[in-house]
Specification:
membrane; mainly alpha; Growth Hormone, Chain: A; transmembrane
Length: 396
């Protein structure tokens, strides 16, 4: 059956399916989650809310992402995905439209929370559905290409915010993301719902496939390192343009340029780290990945403003998807019999640490600390993660 499906699957069909997956990730991640990063300094400047309140809004979004990931873990069957995936994309569009109509902080926070729920569900379920489809056609190795949509989403979000900066204000700044999300979400959902993926039958007995624990001496260091990665990268990915606004003069090209650099560095990231992991090994590649990312966040603190901001944008942008890719692959190698379960748990953990980052930043700012010093939280988290990578055993 798999041979027949493979022979009947054209390159155009493979490209269309991968493009649909990339598009829905572009919508929920680029136009949902990360467009908030370049928008934040404009919204603060417009007086919609202050920097501390902006950090709180980000925290609500990341809490939603964590809850969405948990929902996706609970309802993971193909028939459930076919229901939840289009509903989640519709929720993304609806909540983005709501934000275009209000300056009320509570309403914005609630809408961003629901938008995070939609993001978490889609980010887990869309790649999972595509992977099932590819496995039936012996093309599973192509599944990682859907994550290119994240990098393209960052690039698109940067262009939308910069291009509309002079003629939109306050809540209106969300309109470009809302309008573009509608056709993209509709096309991506319609294409993915047509995938020929059979619903798996339930097990005929109550015995689990494996009784080995999810957390053991091999996987615990990997989980801890991943927690450090999630907390370490989310600070620059949320506050880097705001830091540029604090440190640079009005009209400086890096006020918008930092997010553009992040976007451009993110696009080739998955391909680079996939190749490097295959060449030198995933564990050595992950250590290098953490080190480069650490240097990037540290640069924003210790180097002169322009140089530090550029290095942070380029190094963090070029590494954070590689961290995800390499960690997930190492986890599957350590526990190949329960890879999906391990992957789901890591998504939830990543979501939790991303929620903690903006919350800690808010506490720091409310206590009188500066935004640049708050980046020290990210440095400490990445050091923590790097240390625990050295305790992860090599898989046989």
């Amino acid at each position: 059956m798999s041979v027949s499906r493979q022979s009947c699957t054209s390159r155009q069909e493979l490209f269309t399916v991968l493009a649909a997956g990339a598009v829905v990730l572009l919508v929920v991640h680029g136009l949902g989650r990360f467009i908030y990063t370049p928008l934040l300094p404009y919204l603060v400047d417009d007086g919609q809310f202050g920097a501390a309140e902006g950090a709180a809004v980000a925290t609500w979004n990341y809490l939603g992402y964590l809850m969405g990931a948990m929902v996706a873990i609970r309802w993971h069957r193909i028939d459930q995905i076919r229901t939840l995936l289009p509903v989640s994309l519709a929720l993304h569009v609806a909540t983005t439209l709501v934000i275009t109509q209000t300056d009320h902080l509570t309403v914005i926070s609630g809408a961003r929370w629901l938008n995070g729920v939609a993001n978490g569900i889609v980010f887990v379920q869309a790649p999972a559905l595509i992977l099932e489809w590819l496995v039936l056609r012996n093309r599973a190795s192509m599944s990682g290409l859907v994550y290119i949509g994240v990098g393209l989403g960052l690039l698109l979000s940067s262009g939308l915010v910069t291009g509309s900066a002079d003629w939109l204000e306050g809540a209106e700044r969300w309109w470009p993301a809302a309008l573009i999300s509608i056709p993209l979400a509709w096309w991506g959902a319609a294409r993915l719902m047509k995938l020929d993926v059979p619903v798996r039958q339930q097990e005929n007995n109550n015995h689990p496939v494996t009784t080995s624990p999810l957390f053991d001496r091999a996987s615990i260091p990997l989980f801890l390192s991943y927690a450090g990665a999630g907390l370490g990268y989310i600070l620059p990915m949320t506050f880097l343009p705001l830091l540029a606004k604090v440190e640079l003069s009005a009209g400086h090209w890096l006020l918008n340029g930092t997010w553009l650099i992040v976007a451009l560095a993110t696009i080739p990231g998955p391909w680079i780290w996939n190749k490097l992991g295959a060449r030198i090994g995933d564990l050595p590649a992950l250590k290098l990945n953490f080190l480069i990312q650490l240097i990037g966040v540290l640069a924003a603190i210790v180097l002169p403003s322009e140089i530090g901001l550029i290095l942070c944008a380029a190094l963090v942008g070029g590494t954070f998807l590689g961290t995800v890719l390499l960690t997930q692959r190492i986890g599957r190698a350590l526990h190949p019999h329960q890879g999906p379960r391990l992957s789901a748990a890591m998504v939830a953990l990543y979501g939790f640490t991303q929620m903690v980052g903006p919350w800690l930043t808010k506490q720091w700012l409310d206590g009188g600390g500066t935004l640049v010093n708050a980046f020290g939280i990210g440095v400490a988290a990445l050091v923590f993660g790097l240390v625990f990578v050295f305790f992860v055993p090599r898989s046989e």
